[in-house]
Design a protein that fits this description.
- This protein is an alpha/beta fold and about 200 residues long.
- The chain is built from seven helices and seven strands.
- About 30% of the residues lie in helices and about 15% in strands.
- Strands 3-2-1-4-5-7-6 form a seven-stranded mixed sheet, with helices on both faces.
- The radius of gyration is 16 Å and the shape is globular.
Length: about 200
Amino acid sequence: MRVLIGCEFSGVVRDQFIRLGHDAVSCDVLPTRAKGPHIQDDVLAVINDGWDLAIFHPPCTYLANSGNKHLYIEPERPNKAALASIFFKELLNSPIPRVCVENPIMRAPEHNAGRRADQVIQPWMFGHMEKKATCLWLRGLPKLMPISDLKEATEALPLHLQQKSFYMTPSADRGLLRSITYHGIAFAMAKQWGSL
């Protein structure tokens, strides 16, 4: 299966598909941080290249509900949010038969994504004792089936350990580090969707 992992610089999802024998390529405007097949370009430049499956991780900065607090202090934010919404919809409606677009809890999903997400997953459903709600918009794909249930154990942890991503120390690359897909989720995507 030819698999495109769009807006991924880490190679985490790409490499899980490769391990299972798929022809998987990541694509991002950034260089890859992990050796492997990678196209450094705008993903829209390669979206029509005959892929069987695509998993997209578009930037969430201007779409996520968590950014609402910036709406009235950054005058350019509404315009950037409009562009981010257009990009999101282009990915979701791409000419690829099977598509997943992931993003955090989104502000006004009916407007920004065109519809509500099909599924909300948590890392604790996939072997990680952490909370970080991630929405999946699916087309031609079934919902991702959890492979573990660590909710109770996760909720017993102190808040800063439950939400490591949220409490991550501020740094120049904090946003990039927070965007990396959990290995357990990447494995489930490759195992479940790669067998369709």
